[in-house]
Write a structure and sequence with these properties.
Layout: H1 3-8, E1 11-16, H2 26-38, E2 43-48, E3 60-63, H3 69-74, E4 78-82, E5 98-102, H4 107-114, H5 120-140, E6 143-146, H6 149-161, H7 167-172, E7 180-182, E8 211-215, H8 225-238, E9 242-246, H9 260-271, E10 279-281, H10 291-297, E11 300-303, H11 309-313, H12 317-324, E12 329-332, H13 336-344, E13 347-350, H14 355-366, H15 368-382, H16 387-390, H17 392-399, H18 407-412, H19 414-454
Parallel strand pairs: 1-2, 1-4, 2-3, 4-5, 5-6, 6-7, 8-9, 8-11, 9-10, 11-12, 12-13
Helix pairs in contact: 4-5, 5-19, 8-9, 8-14, 12-15
Length: 456
């Protein structure tokens, strides 16, 4: 590389709150792969406010705290941010760096399920926190990323409500692609390779010739593993060789609470006499680089969810792993991937909460003839989701970044946003006083300060 080319390399900071380790969940995986792809043309540092015990691959990786974050930002040209970060650092509104906001995870909808079984004041507080974070993100971003066309519609609504769809941004680009662009989750360009035997003939109770259905990720409240367990009871009566493995029960980020549906799923499997004989639970999160060993050994990938608003705008990243391994996919109707799977002939989508229909679909996917056709469709669909392709818009932006066309106007409106945030806090204060009196207000203040101290 010539001296001029080296000097032209942009400096990029990728920011996450998630754990960076051998075992990583979706946000950390996305931040990792963004960093790896950008490092081909940029000098990249990946920082996390969570735990960090893994070295980068062509990019720097380190843990950051509240006090040192400003120096990290000051040292780069472009900052890519995901999660609850911008509201914690008001000075981000005025820094000269180009700021990219990654909105692939609609956390304002997710929080409705994450905190569904919490007391009502906790749920309202969580939602207000999500809304407050989105308010400041909407004002600051020079470029916004989302994962699908459906998500783009959702976020365009947020941007319009925040005043970001205006004469300046419209005249700059009537399609608004320079303001918000689709950057889906992706997968490696090479097929998965087995490094060690970890599933068939290794997991106690799963034989080398058994037919394995894989649930390839966490068990969260917006998913419906209960219908799947019931379907396995029906299917195992037809074919005693079928097995179901839940691949990750315990999230690698300790800040993510245990989900009620995970406990209910294990209880239901035991109640039906399936736990440890037909249905199996891998309690620890599988390391990112080892998941291929399970995918290669599986026969079908499955994803089931409940019908609610989170479904409409979700992007089920676990299904990408199934496509990466050319697995037949069985999933619930209603989300973006169900439409893609059926259109590509990669599997079967069924109505929600119908164990009989789900059992029939799994049986079809396990049939050798149908399964082979589904595998071909899965491989075709995978071709459009390689990281090198999905991240191309972000790579192009970082090579020649631009400020949002309305940047000066959004900076001017920051004070208005701060005043709106104060008004929300006052409404929250009144609500807590009404529900639980002064003691509850004190508890909530302490809780909020603790959460801000964790930057999450």
């Amino acid at each position: 590389m010539t001296q001029a080319a080296a000097a032209a390399r942009r400096r990029v900071l990728v920011v996450t709150l998630d754990t960076i380790a051998r075992a990583m969940a979706g946000p950390a995986i996305r931040a990792w792969e963004i960093s790896r792809e950008l490092s081909r043309t940029c000098d990249v540092a990946l920082v996390t406010f969570g735990a960090c015990n893994r070295d980068g691959e062509g990019f720097a990786v380190r843990q950051v705290d509240v006090g040192s974050f400003r120096a990290e930002v000051d040292a780069v040209d472009v900052v890519v941010i995901q999660g609850f970060v911008v509201r914690t650092f008001p000075w981000l509104q005025d820094v000269p760096q180009h700021v990219v906001i990654d909105l692939y995870d609609p956390f304002q909808l997710e929080t409705l399920e994450v905190d569904r079984y919490q007391p009502e004041p906790v749920r309202w507080e969580a939602l207000e926190r999500a809304r407050g974070e989105l308010d400041v993100q909407m004002r600051r971003g020079d470029l916004f990323l989302c994962a699908s066309g459906r998500q783009r519609d959702l976020w365009l609504g947020h941007l319009a409500a925040a005043g970001r769809v205006n004469p300046a941004t419209y005249d700059d680009d009537p399609s608004l692609t320079r303001l918000i662009t689709i950057v889906p989750f992706g997968m490696a360009s090479t097929p998965p390779q087995r490094s060690a035997a970890r599933l068939k003939g290794v997991v106690d109770g799963i034989g080398p010739d058994d037919k394995v259905i894989l649930w390839g990720g966490g068990v969260y409240n917006w998913f419906d593993p209960l219908t799947l367990v019931r379907a396995m009871g029906i299917l195992s009566a037809r074919d005693p060789s079928v097995r179901l493995l839940f691949l990750g029960m315990r999230h690698p980020n300790p800040d993510v609470p245990e989900m009620a549906v995970a406990t209910r799923t294990q209880a239901l499997a035991s109640e039906l006499g399936l736990n440890g004989t037909v249905v199996f639970f891998h309690e620890q999160w599988v390391p990112y680089d080892e998941r291929a060993d399970y995918l290669v050994d599986a026969d079908v990938g499955v994803s089931c969810h409940f019908p609610h608003v989170e479904t409409e705008f979700s992007f089920r990243t676990r299904i990408l792993d199934y496509l990466w391994a050319s697995l037949p996919v069985v999933c619930t109707m209603g989300d973006e991937f169900a439409r893609l799977v059926e259109a590509a002939g990669a599997g079967v989508a069924v109505l929600p909460e119908d164990p009989e229909a789900l059992a029939d679909a799994l049986q079809l996917a396990l049939d050798p003839a149908h399964g082979a056709a589904f595998r071909e469709g899965s491989a075709r669909l995978a071709g459009g989701f390689r990281w090198g392709e999905t991240l191309a818009p972000l790579v192009e932006y970082c090579a020649a970044p631009w400020y949002a066309a309305d940047r000066t106007m959004t900076r001017h409106s920051t004070q208005v946003g701060v005043q709106a945030s104060i008004a929300r806090d006052m409404r929250s204060l009144v609500r807590h006083l009404r529900v639980g009196g002064v003691r509850q207000v004190v508890r909530k203040v302490r809780w909020r300060l603790a959460r801000r101290g964790q930057v999450s």
